[in-house]
Design a protein that fits this description.
Strand content: 5-15%
Number of strands: 12
Distance between the termini: 26 Å
Number of helices: 14
């Protein structure tokens, strides 16, 4: 959304084609950005097997063929200079660009892994072939390297809207809380976090674990049973989906990023922007953000871990560390993320990509 707003302010005329309705469409209308609803499906077999997979693929191809025709009608009236696909599982932008002979920019924000349960419609190799025939931009170097795209440009997401200093409470005045933010599912490492916290809180009874994010009913029940078995029911708070995530970060001492894989690692950046101390799983996009901060400052501004035992040790390290040292780390992290992940820089870099591929 911030990218669209920024490009619109620069004078770019934009047409957005969407499949799922959103409350934020009103914001686009207010900016004078054209929108059109076209029902289409992501290019994925959804992990189906046998006849069920065949039936779904026939349905997908019929749905997307009709969608492509409708997109062509819309685009013919709009006459775009660039077609920008914003996520990797949507392939229709590529096919539309080929029909119209318009440059295609594919914005890669996640790892689409060979062997995952859900695979691209015509196979993983076909997906890679489409990427290499497109102009590409990746949200991190990790994503660029994963797909082996030599000419891909890395443009970090614009997370931070304001770069001026914010009046945030120091660590010493914050709640003794480890905060988890994100989809509450196994891939986000929430069980690993609970296991480490269960051992930590036996030694530090004045701490709590706060969990922000949505979970399926089944997985929520599984986690409830887990914390009961770990005897930490009174120490774990499931807060659900919250509209005040930034405020919750600003009230707590530590954000734990336990995800097993992140394309960009937006929670890490948001936590640092709220001057929270970060303890993070040292992998993929999250590792890249931590490495960027270390390169800028000369030393780590967060604690890293790779398994539950290391996470426990880093939790213990945090409560034993000098508070001024920790405060210096979060202040440095705040400066780094404001210099690297501002919205204005992000919009400018994407606009430069448009200029380069339309020359």
């Amino acid at each position: 959304m911030e990218l669209l707003k920024g490009l619109s302010r620069q004078g770019h005329e934009i047409q957005v084609i969407y499949s799922r309705k959103s409350d934020r469409l009103a914001e686009l209308d207010a900016l004078g950005i054209k929108t059109a609803h076209v029902q289409f499906l992501r290019s994925s077999d959804r992990g189906f097997k046998g006849l069920k997979r065949l039936a779904y693929l026939i349905f997908l191809l019929m749905t997307n063929a009709l969608a492509l025709f409708r997109m062509l009608v819309i685009a013919a009236g709009f006459r775009p200079q660039v077609i920008h696909t914003n996520v990797s599982p949507i392939h229709l932008g590529y096919y539309l660009s080929r029909i119209m002979r318009v440059p295609h920019l594919w914005h890669l924000r996640e790892f689409r892994k060979r062997g995952d349960k859900s695979q691209p419609t015509f196979g993983y190799d076909h997906f890679l072939k489409l990427l290499r025939r497109s102009n590409t931009v990746a949200a991190t170097r990790s994503i660029k390297d994963y797909y082996s795209l030599a000419d891909c440009k890395v443009v970090y997401d614009g997370v931070i809207k304001e770069t001026s200093d914010r009046d945030l409470p120091p660590l010493a005045e914050r709640i003794n809380s480890f905060l988890f933010v994100g989809r509450v599912e196994q891939s986000k490492g929430i069980e690993l976090l609970m296991d480490a916290f269960a051992q930590f809180v036996r030694e530090n009874k004045d701490w709590q674990l706060d969990v922000v994010g949505a979970a399926s009913n089944d997985y929520h029940a599984k986690l409830r049973n887990r914390i009961k078995a770990l005897d930490i029911v009174d120490k774990v708070n499931f807060l659900g989906v919250c509209s005040d995530v930034q405020e919750k970060m600003a009230q707590r001492k530590v954000v734990v990023v336990s995800s097993l894989s992140e394309g960009f690692g937006i929670v890490t950046v948001e936590a640092m922007n709220n001057r929270c101390f970060v303890i993070a799983n040292d992998n993929t996009g999250t590792k890249e953000q931590l490495d960027n901060a270390k390169s800028a400052v000369g030393t780590d501004v967060a604690f890293r871990f790779t398994d539950a035992e290391e996470l426990l040790q880093q939790m213990r390290r945090f409560v034993s560390e000098d508070i001024d040292t920790l405060q210096n780390a979060v202040d440095n992290a705040y400066k780094v993320v404001n210099s690297l992940y501002g919205v204005e820089r992000y919009v400018s870099e994407v606009a430069k990509c448009y200029e380069q591929i339309t020359k």
